[in-house]
Amino acid sequence: MRLTALLFAACLVPIASAQNRYDPIVNPLKAKGLGELGAYKLLQELSGGIGPRLSGSLNAQRAVQWGMETMEEMGLQKIHLVPCEVPHWVRGDVEDLTMADGTKLTCCALGGSIATPEDGLEAEVIEVHSLDEARKLGDKAKGKFIFYNRPFDSSLVNTFAQYGTAGDQRFLGPAVAAKLGAAGALVRSMTGDADDVPHTGATTFEKGGSKVPCVALSIIAANKLSEALKAGPAKVKLTLKCETLPDTPSFDVVGEITGSEKPNEVIVMGGHLDSWDKGRGAHDDGAGVTESLEALRLIKNLGWHPKRTIRVVLFMNEENGGRGAAAYADYAKTANEKHIAAMESDSGGFAPRGFGTSLKKRDIGRVNKWLPALSVFEIDHFTPEGEGGADVDPLAPTKAVIFGLEPESQRYFDYHHSDKDTIDKVNPRELELGALSMATLAWLISEDGL
Ligand SMILES: [Zn+2]
After folding, report:
1. Residues, beta carbon < 5 Å, ion ligand 1
2. What are the strands, taking DSSP E only, across 362-426?
3. What is the DSSP string of 151-165?
C-alpha cells in the first residue's frame, strides 16, 4: 500500500467505526429503499398520473383521495383529514402579451392576478429593478405597465439565496404597481434559466386594496422587452382571463405509526399536496409528499415499531394561501399531544445534502451526533437557524424543533412553477436518498428523543 493510500485509510477509521453503531438502522433502510425505489413509484402516480393540482381544482381533490388511499394501502394508523377552506383561482385560457410591432412575448399570469378587459389592456412600459425604484416613479406610473426586471444574482452559489433576493418583485411588485395606479405589472421570471418558459407563482395584494393584472415573462421575453425599451418608449397589450372563484373546502391528509412507548410525542414529516397549474408538480412538491410517505413506508415494512409517533402530513394550499398549514397548526394546538419535531421537504427531489433546523448554533450538538448515520445518504450538515418550510414553520409555537431537507440546489429554479416541472426531471435514486434521509432522522428522533 502506498503511503498516501495508507494515510487515506487511516483517516477513514474513525468515521467508519462511528457509522457501525448505526449500521443496524441505515443498512436495512438503504438496502430496501435503493432496491425498491418506492418514492419514485408514488411520484409516478401523483405527478405522472394526477398531474397539476392547484388548490380548489378537481385534481387537488383527486390528490387528497390518492393520499388517503396510499396511506390505507401502507397500513398506516389514525388516517384522517384536517379540513381547510382554500382559495380557488383559475388561470383562464388566454394569456397574451404583444408589443406594438406585433412581437409576442411569452408570459403566464401570476397566481392571484385579475383579468384584463376582454379585448386587452394596452399601455406604455416602464422598466425598474426594485420595488423602491417603482415607488419613486410616483405619478409617472399611472396607467403604465411596471416591468420588474432584476435578474437572479448569479454570484450567489445557492439558488434559494438567488430566489430570496429577487423574489420580492413577484410577491409584492404587482401590489406596489396597484398602489401607484399602474395598469399592470410584468415580472421577469424567478429563474436563472434563460429560455422561453415563464415561471408562475403567487403574488399578494393588500387586503381590500386594488389589484392589477400581472404576469411573469420568460427570460427571453424579458430580455427582448428590455432591449426594445433601450431604443425608446414601448407599448404592450396584455390580455388575461383569470378569475378568483369562491373559497373551496379542502383537506390535509394525515396518517401515522403510533409510538409504542410515548405515543403522545409526535414527529411530523411532510410536503405539500397542492402544486401550481403549470407543469405537473413533480419537484414542487410531489417530491416532498412522496419522500415523506416512502420514509414511513420503509419504517413500517421493515417491521420497526417507533417509540414515539411518526406522522406524515400532506399539506394543502402551500402555494397560494398556506391554509392547510394553518389548519394543521390549529389542530396541533388543541390535540392532546406534544409535537417534538416537524420536518418538511419542499426544495425539490434532488440528492440530499443537509437539513436546515430551528435549533440555535449552541444547541446543534443535539442533532450533529447523528451525522455519522445521515452521512451514509450524503447528508453532511445541519444548518442552525436554517430553513424549515412554509408548512411546518407554523408549528414552532408548539415547541417542536423544525427541520427542512436541503437538497442540492442548482437545477431547482430551472423547473420551479413552470411547464418544466415534470417527472422526467426527477432522478429515482436521488429522490429515494431524500426519503432515506428523512426516515433516518425521524427514526433517530423517535428512538433517542430530542
Ligand atoms: Zn413548494
Report:
1. 284-285, 346
2. 381-383, 401-407
3. PP-TT-SSHHHHHHH
Is 430 one of the catalytic residues?
no
Of 339, 318, 310, the residue nearest 271 (C-alpha): 318
DSSP state letters, 245-270: EEEEEEEEEEEEE--SSEEEEEEEEE
- Type of residue at 296: L
Which residue type, as a one-letter code, is found at position 101? D
The answer to whether the bond into 285 is cis (omega within 30° of 0) is yes
Does the predicted model carry a pTM greater than 0.85? yes
Nearest to 257 by CA among 222, 214, 301: 301
How much distance in Å is there from the Cα of 76 to the middle of ligand 1?
Answer: 25
**One pLDDT digit (tens) per residue for the chain, 450 residues:** 444 444 444 444 444 455 589 999 999 999 999 999 999 999 999 999 999 999 999 999 999 999 999 999 999 999 999 999 999 999 999 999 999 999 999 999 999 999 999 999 999 999 999 999 999 999 999 999 999 999 999 999 999 999 999 999 999 999 999 999 999 999 999 999 999 999 999 999 999 999 999 999 999 999 999 999 999 999 999 999 999 999 999 999 999 999 999 999 999 999 999 999 999 999 999 999 999 999 999 999 999 999 999 999 999 999 999 999 999 999 999 988 999 999 999 999 999 999 999 999 999 999 999 999 999 999 999 999 999 999 999 999 999 999 999 999 999 999 999 999 999 999 999 999 999 999 999 999 999 999
| Centroid of chain to Cα 150 | 22
Dist CA 318 CA 325 (whole Å): 7
Alpha carbon 413 to its chain's center: 11
Candidates 95, 265, 294, 318; catalytic one: 318
Bridge pairing between strands 381-383 and 352-357: parallel
